[in-house]
Amino acid sequence: MNAFLLDKIHRPALALLIARVFTGGLMCYLHGWSKLMEGTERWERLGRGLSHSLGMDFLSIPLGFMASFSESIAAILIIVGWYTRPSAFLLAFTMLIAVSKKIPAGLRDAELPMLFLCLSLIILFSGAGKYSLDSQFSQKL
Questions:
Q1: Residue percentage of the chain with pLDDT more than 90
Q2: How many other CB atoms are there within 10 angstroms of residue 106's CB atom?
Q3: What's this model's pTM, rounded to 2 decimal places?
Q4: For residues 92 and 114, what is the distance between their CA atoms, to the nearest angstrom?
Q5: What's the burial of 11, exposed, middle or buried (CB within 10 Å: 0-12/13-18/19+)?
Q6: HSE-up of residue 22 (Cα within 13 Å, Cβ side)
Q7: CB atoms within 10 A of CB 113
Q8: Which of 3, 81, 105, 129 is most buried (CB neighbours < 10 A)?
Q9: Average pLDDT over residues 23-37
Q10: What pLDDT is stored for residue 61 in this prediction?
């Protein structure tokens, strides 16, 4: 009976660990790392839509870099659970922009960024959980 109660106690922490590893891992591997490594030409293409709609075309490279950063470096931070909430916020914001760009073409086109947005928000609101560097460092402080 005690083992069952311990399992119940650890289930939310394990669920957050799984969500963090899969969200961050898939985002970084399938989307972010290549964008980060391709450099300024890719960053400019990524940031052009938002910077143009803001009327600030000079921001296309910095905005594209921020999208690449959130899909790669922030995704890695989400995996290990370090600065998890700020990283999840960056990823959620990036996915919100991606959804807004893809939703005019239809729900099917926006499905993947919507799923990543939802997972990012879950991680943002829940925090990193017990099995994370955030938890380890906060216990030592």
A1: 81
A2: 9
A3: 0.89
A4: 9
A5: exposed
A6: 10
A7: 21
A8: 81
A9: 97
A10: 95
